[in-house]
Amino acid sequence: MSFIHDPQFGDKMITLMAALVLVLQISMVGQRWLMTNIRIFALQSFLLAAIACTIAVFNHANHLYIAALLTLILKALVLPVILARLVERVGIPQEIEPLINVPLSILISGGLTLVGYVVAESFYHPEETSASAALGHNTLAIAIALFLIGFFTTLNRRKALTQVLGLLSMENGLFLAAISLMYGMPLVVELGIFFDVLLAVMVLGILVYRIGETFDSMDVSKLRRLRG
Amino acid sequence: MIVILAKSGLQLLLLLLVAPLVTGIIRTLKARLQTRRGPGILQPYRDLFKLLRKGMVIPDTASWIFSAAPYMVFVTATLVGLMIPMIATDAPLSLFGGVLAVIYLLALGRFFLALGGLDTGSSFGGLGSSREMTISAIAEPAMMLAIFTVALGANSTNLSEMARSAVSQSWRFLAPSQMLAFSGLFIVLIAETGRIPVDNPATHLELTMIHEAMILEYSGPYLALLEWGASIKQLVLMTLLVNTFFPFSLSPNWTVSGLGLGLLFYLLKLLLLACCIVLVETTNAKMRLFRVPELLAVAFILGALALISTFIF
Fold first, then answer.
1. Which residue has better confidence, A60 or B113?
2. Is there a contact between A125 and A133 (Cβ–Cβ < 8 Å)?
3. What's the rounded Cα separation, in Å, for the pair A90 and A220?
4. Is the pLDDT assigned to residue A43 strictly greater than 90?
5. Could you give the count of Cα atoms lying within 13 Å of A5 in the half-sphere of its Cβ?
6. CA within 13 Å, CB half, B233
7. What's the pLDDT band for B54 if we cut at 50, 70, 90?
8. Mean pLDDT, chain A, as a whole number?
9. Quick one: B12 exposed, middle or buried, by C-beta within 10 A (0-12, 13-18, 19+)?
């Protein structure tokens, strides 16, 4: 098992998984079914946990194991289950109706990925040849792209629940940037973020449920009038 | 000269024999996954044999194009098959042309297939042809972008050169650009071979069919040629996918032991890819026709991102 200690192999694996995360993000934009979207998010979070784990193995950053475990439990298992149950309980139609049609949205997310690469380029110094610099360069671009596409998804969708999914994938982008650039934040900050996300989803879940009950729809564009 | 002929003969034999087998394996695996018994894996051979012995019905309205189309489809698919590396890194006809020749020979075959569908003047044929052309108009650029990504890495559009350079670089297939290009090309493969999210190869339901609509008027030996040509095209695209992205185990020379090992691994890779295709086919429902461009847009964007990321990394 000599390749376990080959840092080049580790870098390759991490960039590969980061690219897979990007592919999943783009397929989330191209997907029309709510449940599939939730499953894609779960898969994306699972890959993030795998990336964190790989970084922990190859760079001996032991506290990242905890971050990986938390990502696996919270984002890959608990959140998708909560969201899926919410979909079942509210009984909303499965099909997502984006504001901009799907082919154009996909083209826009391709453009946003380019923006991510251009922005990451300005952080890149070729004279710095250390392994972490090269790794950061590759994954930072993808992380920025994830963040931008997540933001775009949030804007592009009408229903509250799908906007939550966009928000969550934005958070995934931030997490990817944090673990690949500086091998994770201090544990306290990470814990805080995880519980923040969990809480946000719960609060948004209740909000979504209330919107669904009051308006018989999850379309946020109907939330125009104030009611006493 | 003799050497090239011998190599071509061997690869031709392999191409003609393996192509129906792959179709049969995919059908059987799919049936098993849907808890049906399904036909045996040799069924496509029996079908071809039966069709080749039967008589033909040619519509009165058909012109010479109707008879030319099956030969064109068959010949272009086979020619492309000789231009890509199958079990050894240098393909027998690699001097004949590179990636562009491969893509455009496939396009030529498709063009004649569409003409053949139009030629009889039946409404189904025209419908199938127009759908096929719509889909290929988007699938073709996506395919080009994905293959050019690999060609950039090898500094050559010659497929044998690409395979050779890929064999020498270890871990290269793990690069994100390769992975993006692979996913793009996989979607193109699904679309080009008429697999389920795009077209259903097992139905004659007029609302959904694409490939079957074009060959509806054909019968007997012509139908056999078209079916055989379609399965060869499928094998060619699958080979392109497995051998440009995972070229290890390709034999660097044409020795008996190297070829034997190359053949073994080649069949193994094909089997794995066939399993992936079967999984996709079984877990997905057929898409509405107007949704197909969305799927192909994803393939296009993946190809474009792959190409761009090779410049950046």
1. B113
2. yes
3. 15
4. yes
5. 2
6. 31
7. very high
8. 81
9. middle
Residue from the list B177, B179, B294 with its beta carbon closest to the beta carbon of A20: B179
Partner-chain residue, chosen from A12, A23, A32, that has the shortest CB–CB distance to B180: A23
Q: What SS3 class is residue B251? A: strand
Residue B285, Ramachandran bin (φ over 0: left; ψ between -120 and 50: alpha; else beta)? beta
- CB-based contacts of B40, cutoff 8 Å, min separation 6: B24, B28
Judge whether B12 is closer than 8 Å to chain A, CB to CB: no
To the nearest whole Å, the CA of A19 is away from the closest chain B CA by 5
pLDDT tens readout for residues A77-107: 988 898 888 888 877 667 777 888 888 898 8
Q: How far apart are CA B50 and CA B221, in angstroms?
A: 9
DSSP letter assigned to residue B146: H
At B223, the amino acid letter reads L
Contact present, A61 and A73 (Cβ < 8 Å)? no
Measured between CA atoms, how close is A81 to chain B, in angstroms? 21
CB contact under 8 A, A103 and B293: yes
Rounded alpha-carbon distances, angstroms, from residue A118 to A147, A172, A184, B311: 14, 20, 23, 12
Query: Is-contact B262 B249, C-beta < 8 A?
Result: yes
Instruction: Determine the residue type at B138.
Output: I
Which range of B4-8, B221-225, B244-248 scores highest in mean pLDDT? It is: B221-225
Tell me: pLDDT of B302 over 70: yes
Q: Which residue of A has its CA nearest to B294?
A: A103
Considering only B12-16, B103-107, B203-207, which range has the smallest mean pLDDT?
Answer: B203-207
pTM for the structure as a whole = 0.86
